[in-house]
Design brief:
Blueprint: H1 7-18, H2 24-30, E1 51-57, H3 64-79, E2 88-94, H4 99-111, E3 116-119, H5 122-129, E4 137-142, E5 161-165, H6 171-182, E6 188-193, H7 198-210, E7 217-222, H8 226-236, E8 242-246, H9 250-254, H10 256-265, E9 269-272, H11 275-284
Parallel strand pairs: 1-2, 1-3, 3-4, 4-5, 6-7, 6-8, 8-9
Helix pairs in contact: 1-3, 4-5, 6-7, 8-10, 10-11
Length: about 290
């Protein structure tokens, strides 16, 4: 899977937003191979030959995963004829999972009057829609966009946002099932989640609903800061038969080096929500 997930389709949606006059039928025909694709109306911005794209990242500025995603994004834009500095300008802000920075950078990007904005996570979409309901937003990884209020429905999203669903909350039950398959003796599971965002409580709720079926006791662990994560996992690991599930959250991604290190140190079988944790684990191996 490319760094942005369905990268080709995401870039295509952004490019269509830069153009003017594409009809709904043409959009659907072009993107017919995507599992979840919702068209938005083309928005023409007269800027001479320079279009403008805003990008609000959930990763930190120096995060290798975020840098890889932006590199892939620029590369695929260029394949479609959009070269930075020639016919497109890209303004990037990286909040690193900080909700206050998300709000600040969302305001900054909208003030630049971009033709379209790329948002990389649910939290960044929420920050942007709090500022604008007119600038087109393409989201790469949103969890439950209907429940979060980003779109009216999957069939008819309405509004100014479109994009891709990372997964639905029910996936959380599969994570626990997978953990029990690879480590049948696990009876205690620490679930890392961000309680400040709707997807954090939603994912935990899905795991909690099936925990009795698997004979597992859950311990929620918040990911608000590194100290909290280290204390909670270290305390959890004092007892035996423990496992770890890391739900999808910008702050979990920000702290993934620490999370993977702690899982390895305490020999906790772990299931991660995204591939970046696995590649981090490879890099941390001696």
């Amino acid at each position: 899977m490319p760094p942005f997930g369905q990268l080709d389709f995401i870039v295509t949606m952004l490019v269509l937003s830069l153009g003017a006059g594409m009809r709904r039928r043409e959009f659907i025909k072009l993107l017919g191979g995507a599992t979840v694709v919702w068209p938005i109306a083309g928005r023409a911005q007269q800027r001479g030959q320079i279009a403008r794209i805003g990008v609000l990242m959930s990763t930190a500025v120096d995060d290798p995963e975020g840098q890889a995603r932006i590199t892939a994004f620029r590369r695929d834009l260029q394949k479609l004829g959009w070269t930075e500095g020639q016919n497109v300008r890209i303004d990037i802000r990286s909040a690193g999972g900080d909700a206050a920075l998300d709000r600040k950078f969302a305001t900054e990007l909208v003030a630049l009057t971009p033709d379209v904005i790329l948002a990389t996570a649910s939290q960044t979409v929420a920050a942007l829609q709090a500022v604008t309901r007119t600038v087109p937003i393409v989201f790469a990884n949103a969890v439950d966009p209907v429940g979060a209020g980003f779109v009216d429905s999957l069939a008819r999203p309405g509004g100014n946002a479109t994009g891709f669903v990372l997964f639905e909350y029910g996936m959380g039950a599969k994570w626990l099932e997978l953990l029990k398959e690879i480590a049948p003796n696990v009876t205690r599971v620490a679930v890392l989640r961000d309680p400040a965002i709707a997807s954090g409580t939603g994912q935990f709720g899905a795991i909690q609903s099936v925990a009795p079926t698997f004979g597992v006791e859950l311990t929620p662990v918040n990911v608000r800061d590194s100290g909290e994560i280290e204390r909670a996992i270290s305390a959890f690991a004092h007892s035996s038969n423990g496992g770890l599930i890391v739900t999808a959250a910008p702050l979990a991604l920000v702290h993934r080096d620490l999370i993977v290190t702690l899982a390895n140190r305490h020999r906790l079988c772990a299931v991660y929500s995204v591939r970046a944790f696995v590649t981090t684990n490879w890099h941390l191996q001696p």
